[in-house]
Amino acid sequence: MNALGLVSMRLCAGLMGRRSAVNPPFLRFSSGMTSSQIDEEVAKLLQLKAQLGGDEGKHVFVLKTAKGTRDYNPKQMAIREKVFSIIISCFKRHGAETIDTPVFELKETLTGKYGEDSKLIYDLKDQGGELLSLRYDLTVPFARYLALNKITNIKRYHIAKVYRRDNPAMTRGRYREFYQCDFDIAGQYDAMIPDAECLKIVYEILNELDLGDFRIKVNDRRILDGMFAVCGVPDEKFRTICSTVDKLDKMAWEDVKKEMVNEKGLSEDVADRIGEYVSMQGGQDLAERLLQDPKLSQNKQAFAGLTDMKLLFSYLELFQVTDKVVFDLSLARGLDYYTGVIYEAILSQTIPASVSTPAEQNGADEAGVSVGSVAGGGRYDGLVGMFDPKGRKVPCVGVSIGIERIFSIMEQKAETSSEKVRTTETQVLVASAQKNLLEERLKLTSQLWNAGIKAEVLYKKNPKLLSQLQHCEETGIPLVAILGEQELKDGVVKLRNVASREEVDVPRADLVDEIKKRTL
Amino acid sequence: MNALGLVSMRLCAGLMGRRSAVNPPFLRFSSGMTSSQIDEEVAKLLQLKAQLGGDEGKHVFVLKTAKGTRDYNPKQMAIREKVFSIIISCFKRHGAETIDTPVFELKETLTGKYGEDSKLIYDLKDQGGELLSLRYDLTVPFARYLALNKITNIKRYHIAKVYRRDNPAMTRGRYREFYQCDFDIAGQYDAMIPDAECLKIVYEILNELDLGDFRIKVNDRRILDGMFAVCGVPDEKFRTICSTVDKLDKMAWEDVKKEMVNEKGLSEDVADRIGEYVSMQGGQDLAERLLQDPKLSQNKQAFAGLTDMKLLFSYLELFQVTDKVVFDLSLARGLDYYTGVIYEAILSQTIPASVSTPAEQNGADEAGVSVGSVAGGGRYDGLVGMFDPKGRKVPCVGVSIGIERIFSIMEQKAETSSEKVRTTETQVLVASAQKNLLEERLKLTSQLWNAGIKAEVLYKKNPKLLSQLQHCEETGIPLVAILGEQELKDGVVKLRNVASREEVDVPRADLVDEIKKRTL
């Protein structure tokens, strides 16, 4: 911290001192404050400190992006566009439309939708007017969109950035600003058909992205709730126990059990009964077996969930995706809004240990860090009704592709590959070997642009031929159109193939066709 | 407002009362507060009020998007994608790469870059950690990107949303969240070549979007500064007078003069001298004429600007765009960071008066509201240096396409057009006329997906043929593949052309090829 920073710290401390010494009403109010209100007050004082600092003069400017965020350079963008194009093709193949919503919503719109994760929401500063928050996912804005526009039927995808004040782990592709690619089906339909299509989509996308082997875990909120009831978890603890079960992919059962008993107040034997169920994995057979479980099948919720699970697997059979889908009772997913089927896709591939930082290697096996979940989703039949003034429900099911982790893997692949990633699509560079031909170069370039040719020209009056050729080599431009006094006199252009170094004189009138032919 | 809202209002007022009555240090501090600090305090109290309200219980939830923002429905998205694709094609034709930056930056990164517009920046709430703001444009993040990554040469485009707490005028396409499409060239090059390419790009894009006639106004900051000096404006008033001149596109000269004299403290005759210059318009000829102006050409800044303007027009001549480009001394542009050439494109077309609200019709002519600026930009040679720890400069010039206004016009066009906008690309619907064929429909659909065909199937066990055909008519699906007991027995599918109602039996093995052939 620089000297001026210290000054404002001191000013700030002075202000606090004065306040607390002679400001009993403020203090009296404070004594009734909740922890979040105290956080607020601290935030305000820090803001005030910043303001005072700003008024006092300059301090050292830190050149960086905000914590947990990153820029994408052209090479990363080229990879990103390739990934998006595969995903969008799949969504379009399934007949989806697309929509967009604002990056921020009224704070209230997001309130009460994310359970324990709500603390990770970014709020905007109150600058007068509405209280706003950055979107945390694309699902809640989608439900708000449906309710606001009274839409009861839609199949849509939405690709956009979402924001979470989480602990970033950038080498594993976990950021505070990250893309989600969501596909959702809203509408009252026959059971499990849209749900099965969502799983088919995850399967298709992960296959086409060629990220190695993967598994898609499936479960149902109703099965979880039924299981909790049967095991003796009190109703009011279902959601919080659900959050704890959700940690089973990162924590050992022993630690999850400890959290259930010590933090969430379950008895040991209730936890053990849960432990038995959550170790179960299978397919349609497991659904059938649990339907025979006398206790579980007595529970209405569990029975409905298991019956649907059986039906789901029959559709997945028709879609030929059962080789990767597992019915797994340990899958919970933390979000509050799920009401039926839930699922999550996990890559088997691991990121080489050398790439991850020591702090991130907790729980990693010898081979490296597991990439973890790359897609997830489920059914949320109650969310739209929470927004509708009359509580009208619109059943929904959807999936979200965790694209950032996929980008991380693709970037690593590109780095180790020998193939160079092109970041432009330029077909030809207009060049000259002689001086004083800038005007002729600009004129020809303009003619090529007007004919739809992707063309570049160096912004120098008299560039060296070598530096013009170097630019082509560096950026992968395949052709050079070379102008000289002689070519101008003859009404031709020397067209050079950068890779083979072959040159041929092409009449000006044929140049556009010739470039098109050579860069198909 | 509901009862609970009133309660928290009263609580809030009570709190304020208590504070001001028995809280002298707070008050003493207040007396030294700036207006922005008072705004802050008010914002904090409002936040506190909201918190108290939240703790007390429910209040009426307002279902809406944040002020000045909007959702895009599938039809709007289809239009948006068409516009983007034209613009991106143009950027790629000119050899540009693309990058992306986070939606928020450190608050400091944006500080001091936008002059009087800085008050429109959205800040994030201080939730502990860094002070952040939403990006206000894509230019400052671009400069930050170059400095952070030590890049001295790049031609890039960036299409993303930016945020301004401006007064929204939604029917004219003015939002608080809106897209910018930026193209910039960074690097030390020979004078005016990249600048001319930017203007060529604006010309190409506005031509291809087919929005009717347009003009591109050009000026230079150095000419403006020289003109101010020659007219007798004190140095420290250059920027603020520049902001006032910038209003000439919305206000009459008389009102602009009034602001200069009454608010900015210029003398009448200084303002009148400015008035003479800012009425001048022309092309290369005007630059030449002003170079003969004894006072202006004596000014170093003005001389450099006019010399470059002459050179710029010679390049624009080669690019064949001088029919739309005007050298206009009244063009100012408010942003602080411009150092050389500036420009702005204006559509001649107007939005029908019936679409705009009365409040927006100020200054509108009889025919309707002028759409105003749809593109703008200029040279900013100092901005990157503001971020570089050693102050190293990277000269830049760029253009930003004001895409929202273009969307508004395109949407209105689409509404009045008889042609229906398709929002999906589905080639075929898999249907059946008989009951109990869901499994067969799902199996065939899956086969089509696997073959890369865009296919849909209704999520009903036994949908009526009529409702299946209706779905095709409504969404523009051209083909229906109909399954029945007989077709299954014969190993064929009845392929129906929705428009012509013709039906033909196609062997299952030929179906994919037949669909591809018919939906080229």
UniProtKB/TrEMBL annotation, chains A, B:
Gene Ontology annotations of biological process type: histidyl-tRNA aminoacylation; mitochondrial translation
Coiled coil: none
CDD domains linked: HisRS-like_core, HisRS_anticodon
InterPro entries, sorted: aa-tRNA-synth_II, aa-tRNA-synth_II/BPL/LPL, Anticodon-bd, Anticodon-bd_dom_sf, His-tRNA-ligase, HisRS-like_core, HisRS/HisZ, HisRS_anticodon
Binding sites annotated in the UniProt record for L-histidine: D137, L138, T139, R164, Q180, D184, R333, Y337, Y338
Gene3D superfamilies to which the protein is assigned, alphabetical: Anticodon-binding domain, Bira Bifunctional Protein, Domain 2
UniProt catalytic activity: tRNA(His) + L-histidine + ATP = L-histidyl-tRNA(His) + AMP + diphosphate + H(+)
EC number: 6.1.1.21
PANTHER family in the record: HISTIDINE--TRNA LIGASE, HISTIDYL-TRNA SYNTHETASE
Name the UniProt record assigns to this protein: histidine--tRNA ligase
Organism whose genome encodes this protein: Cyprinus carpio
Gene: hars
